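Posting for a labmate who doesn't have an account.
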Amino acid sequence: MKAWLGLGAALLLAACMERTPGTVAFSEAEAAFIKKPGTGVIAGHAFRTKASGTVVNAAGQLVHLIPATEFSRERFKNLFGKGKYLPHRDYPRADNPDPAYVEHMRTTKAEANGRFGFEGVAPGEYIVSSQVLWGDEEAFFREGGMVYDSVTVTGQEKEPVRAILSGN
């Protein structure tokens, strides 16, 4: 019983951990390229592989295309550390990004197979993110979490730029 109480306390403390505060202000000028017309295409797949080897797709989940600015790079480093996967239990509970940052994103939904795409993408560096969740929808912490990858669109591509959001 004591072990379970200790584990529960540790999980609650982990959930309340503060993230490193951001030091870089969002710059609309730096992110403006996302609103320019382009010919680039980003095609991707968002999924996680369970310990059992079963693949879970990000079916119906939102996928965000974010300009890779100094602000967004710092934000993702503070959220994810050195990895590309953030477990659901570690999501920040009070996350209120600058509204201008949110306005400088593009969003689509992943299909049932976890595939997604963005068309008309202007040249630039981007962060592509989504979440892959499974398990009891009523649970405080779900299995899975947020995944992302970085991509570059040059405007010279003959094929879509691939984005694999698996957390690896």
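Reply:
Got it, the structure tokens are right above this. Confidence is low (pLDDT under 50) at residues 1-17.
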